């Protein structure tokens, strides 16, 4: 090896191999996307980010990572020649060559450290950027057209969507890069070190037959046989790794529910039942972990044995040629190194099998998420026609997901200042009618005209209080304002005691009583002054006197607003101009007062 020319040689090597690798990588990815189901899943998830029509930056960044992967292979090749020269110098007791090789090492080691640090930075920065983009894209799709809600109605509802957005995106990005660059590294190393091994290996007599370049053939046969066995031993890890994620997610979900419904469970003294549920789900996690441990023991045991044999194998084969002075000690060391590199490269499939198994599971979960979101997007929606100060229902029919009629052919007109009370026994479809009017319920026909967006307000029985201050909750979903109106409406809703705490950050959904939360929702209506307000048992937790006061306040403060209420108390009738009674099986009756 001529070290003085090496810089030029290495640059030439890079100039040839870099474009070749880019083309090869693109061809492999295109082939996988065309001929394998998981390749198509990768394309579906990755293409929107790498599409040049959007931006060239991700592809350029990836190309830079490919370049650094090639540099790493080239450095390994140089190190293998360095070992040869260094050991040969020592064997020859050549002091000049020895010190020269130490100088070469100094240059190589410096370059190696710089390359490793830069490569690390490039990879991490690339992964963070990709993760940010993909997470934002999935969050956007999750929030678009109320997919977070409507996915409950799809045929293939998904478990733990939160885990998919948060954890699986990270795993997808990391594994995509490590697996693809690992493969590239393996292929280029295979070429480079097979060449080295070819020049260093001699003939070997196998059962009396002379095999030329025996070392090259031996390493290939050895690893191919080992890989076939390893894939058979490792295959069950695919399913086990999928189950691992599922069981953990379901255990975590049970823990979250325990926290969310803590108070109800505490009232019930339901600890024993909860412990049983938790223990059951945790037992699944542990049983699966043991199954992974035992399967991995077999898998890793096999892999370790294969790698250990590979350490001594080249020495045994080359020893006779060294002893007969056909080759130098440096040649033997370089052979062992090249053998190790070829073995490692060929073993890529075998050693990455478990990571690939988890990767497939991640792909299934992420594409399952996209499927559910797309399916939710295709569910029919009854988008309301915008009107001003008027509610108009024509031929409105609402069904259960099973097809059972809840309301058939409803015609109704309400003008500004009108108020409608919807009544009927529990489970008859009152809330579902409001969902249909809001455009959330998919099983609906007919037409709805009503004020939309900020001009319509829906108040459910259990108000939603977002994270943050009380002021944020009061103005939600508008940004909080400090215009003095919040204090006024709190006073009107008999919540003056909260005025001093408007900017306090707390878990208000837990602190305030349900009645207080419902009054806070009424205060929100007073602030927003909508053209139409829907109240779904929004005063159920108040006593009759307070409910009376709140409805009186609504009517007086918002005289032109249409009020549509769902409620059971007969006293509510006084505040409504019409009553819609649901009678079951789709029948209904509209009455004055
Ligand atoms: N997501 C859903 N999937 C399947 N069935 C549903 C779903 N949501 C509601 N239902 C069914 O639709 C019917 C009407 O429910 P809805 O909540 O509208 O009743 P309601 O009249 O408001 O009852 P309540 O007075 O008890 O609040 C019920 O039988 C309910 O089980």
General description of the model:
With 593 residues, this protein is of the alpha/beta class. It folds into 2 domains: 376 residues, ABC transporter type 1, transmembrane domain (ABC transporter transmembrane region fold); 208 residues, P-loop containing nucleotide triphosphate hydrolases (Rossmann fold). 64% of the residues lie in helices and 11% in strands. The strands form 3 sheets. It has a 6-stranded mixed β-sheet with strand order 8-9-10-6-11-12, sandwiched between helices. Strands 3-7-4-5 form a 4-stranded mixed β-sheet, covered by helices on one side. The protein is elongated. The relative contact order is 0.08. The mean pLDDT is 89. The site of adenosine-5'-triphosphate has 12 residues, from helix 14. This is Putative ATP-binding cassette transporter. It is a multi-pass membrane protein. One of its GO terms (cellular component) is plasma membrane. It is found in: Cell membrane. One of its GO terms (molecular function) is ATP binding.
Into which percent range does the helicity of residues fall? 55-70%
Strand order of the largest sheet: 8-9-10-6-11-12
How far apart are the first and last residues' alpha carbons, in Å? 101 Å
What count of structural domains?
A: 2
Keywords: ATP-binding, Cell membrane, Membrane, Nucleotide-binding, Transmembrane, Transmembrane helix, Transport
InterPro entries: AAA+_ATPase, ABC1_TM_dom, ABC1_TM_sf, ABC_transporter-like_ATP-bd, ABC_transporter-like_CS, ABC_transporter_sub-D, P-loop_NTPase
Domain ABC transporter: 391-593
GO cellular component, one term: plasma membrane
């Amino acid at each position: 090896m001529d070290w003085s020319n090496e810089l030029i040689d290495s640059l030439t090597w890079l100039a040839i191999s870099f474009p070749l690798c880019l083309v090869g990588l693109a061809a492999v990815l295109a082939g996988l996307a065309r001929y394998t189901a998981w390749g198509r899943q990768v394309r579906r998830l990755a293409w929107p980010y790498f599409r040049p029509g959007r931006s060239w930056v991700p592809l350029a960044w990836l190309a830079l990572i490919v370049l650094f992967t090639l540099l790493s292979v080239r450095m390994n090749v140089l190190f293998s020649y360095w070992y040869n020269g260094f050991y040969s110098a020592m064997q020859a007791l050549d002091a000049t060559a020895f010190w020269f090789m130490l100088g070469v090492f100094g240059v190589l080691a410096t370059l190696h450290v710089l390359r490793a640090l830069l490569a690390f930075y490039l990879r991490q920065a690339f992964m963070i950027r990709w993760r940010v983009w993909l997470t934002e894209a999935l969050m956007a799709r999750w929030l678009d057209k109320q997919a977070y809600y409507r996915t409950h109605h799809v045929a293939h509802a998904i478990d733990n969507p939160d885990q998919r957005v948060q954890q699986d995106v990270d795993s997808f990005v990391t594994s995509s890069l490590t697996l693809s660059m690992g493969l590239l590294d393996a292929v280029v190393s295979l070429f480079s070190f097979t060449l080295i091994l070819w020049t260093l290996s001699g003939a070997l007599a196998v059962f009396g037959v002379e095999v030329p370049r025996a070392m090259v053939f031996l390493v290939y046969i050895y690893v191919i046989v080992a890989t076939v066995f390893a894939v058979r031993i490792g295959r069950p890890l695919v399913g086990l790794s999928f189950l691992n994620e599922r069981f953990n997610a379901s255990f975590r979900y049970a823990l979250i529910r325990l926290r969310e419904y803590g108070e109800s469970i505490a009232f019930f003294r339901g600890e024993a039942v909860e412990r049983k549920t938790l223990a059951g789900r945790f037992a699944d996690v542990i049983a699966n972990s043991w199954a992974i441990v035992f399967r991995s023991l077999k898998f890793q045991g096999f892999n370790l044995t294969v790698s250990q044999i590979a350490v001594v194998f080249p020495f045994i084969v080359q020893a006779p040629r060294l002893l007969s002075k056909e080759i130098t000690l440096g040649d033997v060391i370089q052979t062992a190194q090249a053998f190790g590199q070829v073995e490692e490269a060929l073993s890529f499939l075998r050693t990455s099998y478990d990571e690939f198994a988890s990767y497939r599971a991640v792909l299934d979960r992420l594409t399952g998420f996209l499927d559910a979101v797309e399916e939710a997007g295709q569910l029919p929606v009854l988008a309301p026609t915008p009107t001003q100060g008027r509610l108009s229902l024509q031929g409105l029919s609402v069904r259960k997901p099973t097809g059972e009629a809840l309301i058939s052919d409803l015609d109704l007109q309400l003008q500004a200042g009108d108020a409608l009370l919807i009544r009927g026994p529990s489970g008859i479809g009152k809330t579902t009618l409001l969902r249909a009017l809001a455009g959330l319920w998919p099983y609906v026909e007919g037409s709805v005209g009503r004020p939309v967006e900020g001009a319509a307000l829906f108040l459910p029985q259990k108000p939603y209080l977002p994270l943050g201050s009380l002021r944020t909750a009061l103005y939600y979903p508008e940004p909080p304002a400090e215009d003095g109106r919040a204090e006024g409406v709190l006073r009107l809703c008999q919540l003056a005691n909260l005025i001093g705490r408007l900017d306090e950050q707390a878990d208000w959904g837990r602190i305030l009583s349900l009645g207080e939360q419902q009054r806070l929702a009424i205060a929100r209506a007073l602030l927003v002054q909508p053209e139409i307000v829907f109240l779904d048992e929004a005063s159920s937790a108040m006593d009759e006197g307070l409910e009376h006061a709140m409805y009186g306040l609504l009517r007086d403060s918002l005289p032109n607003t249409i009020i549509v209420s769902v409620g059971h108390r007969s006293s509510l009738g006084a505040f409504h101009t019409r009553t819609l009674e649901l009678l079951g099986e789709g029948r209904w009756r509209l009455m004055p007062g």
